[in-house]
Specification:
By secondary structure, the protein is mainly alpha-helical. It contains 20 helices and no strands.
Length: 334
């Protein structure tokens, strides 16, 4: 079905390559073209373009995929106004076909287009989980009044890492003054992927006022995924003044979290207690990646790291010998 659909669209494009050309000129133009200017030329643009709005949408998607860095979303908004695509999308999202709704909602999100919030509101509680999630993601992009309302409702029970990526992409294109402090949702939600997303966004938007809370939440949460994301976010926010507290938690967490702690604090050179801690942890560690990370942390620790490695290497056996060889000659194991 997909193959036949693409062949049909390719045939349409060949029959009217002029539409692709004129839309490409507008949608890859570096500057924002005033809507009034396009409006004056609308008859000429219309003459060169497809009659069916679906084919115009298809051309815009093709151009976006071919020129992702040059694609001008402001000019796309003007094209959408010229061809009254908002009304077209509103109509498609009101149809009974789930497939039509899914396809058009995905196109709207991908093109960062605009539709009526009233139409969107009919989809955000749809029984189909994928359509429901798409509509809620679109809400973040489209709503002028309450874009983050579904964060208070756990967003969706089927929230996945892929949903996290899509939401982050939409947040990137929101005005910075509309970005909320994400800490308000961290203790409320139960889904680990969603918690991890909020914590990631705290780091991305440098919300440093949340450092103390994140440290307290690190001790409270049973989730390794959330603990690891907290550590990675704290490194972005400034982990130096949290190192001692994290090290105190080291023996109480899993090896995966221990590895995250070492990987994210080993750059810190100001605490004298770190080198003795690394040495003690190295002697107790058994997991290969953790052993390697601890060995590298020792080796790069201030002026004494190399000397400590030499002392440890004298009594090394088996895998420990390979660890020390790799630390001094990293290419050996690559």
């Amino acid at each position: 079905y997909i193959k036949k659909r693409n062949e049909k669209r390719e045939e349409i494009r060949k029959n009217n390559s002029d539409c692709y050309t004129v839309l490409k000129e507008i949608l890859t133009f570096e500057e924002v073209i005033p809507f009034e200017s396009l409006q004056r030329d609308f008859e000429a643009i219309k003459e060169r373009c497809h009659k069916n709005p679906k084919d115009i949408v298809y051309e815009m998607l093709v151009i976006k995929h071919e020129f992702p860095t040059q694609f001008n979303y402001k000019n796309l908004q003007s094209i959408a106004r010229l061809f009254n695509l908002t009304a077209y999308w509103d109509e498609k999202l009101s149809e009974n076909s789930l497939k039509v709704k899914m396809e058009n909602l995905q196109n709207i999100i991908e093109l960062r287009a605009t539709i009526s919030e009233s139409v969107l509101s009919t989809l955000v509680y749809n029984k189909n989980s994928e359509l429901r999630k798409k509509a809620r993601i679109a809400q973040i992009h489209l709503s002028q009044h309450d874009p983050f309302r579904f964060f208070d409702e756990e967003f969706d029970k089927d929230f996945t890492v892929w949903d996290k990526i899509k939401i982050h992409d939409i947040l990137l294109h929101r005005p910075i003054d509309t970005i909320p402090n994400f800490i308000r949702w961290v203790p409320k939600v139960k889904n680990e992927n969603l918690q991890a997303m909020f914590i990631y966004e705290i780091g991305h938007y440098n919300q440093t006022e949340n450092k103390e809370f994140l440290h307290d939440f690190f001790k409270m949460t049973p989730s390794d995924e959330v603990k690891i994301q907290i550590i990675q976010t704290m490194k972005i926010l400034g982990i130096e003044d949290m190192v001692y507290n994290l090290i105190r938690q080291y023996n109480a967490v899993s090896e995966n979290v221990q590895l995250a702690i070492i990987e994210n604090v080993k750059h810190v050179q100001t605490d004298k207690f770190l080198l003795p801690f690394y040495v003690h942890a190295f002697k107790k560690a058994y997991e290969p990646d953790l052993k390697l990370a601890l060995g590298e942390a020792i080796y790069t620790s201030e002026v004494n790291g190399h000397r400590v490695i030499e002392i440890l290497e004298r009594d090394a056996k088996g895998f420990d010998q390979l660890v020390f060889e790799h630390i001094k000659n990293p290419l050996l194991l690559n």
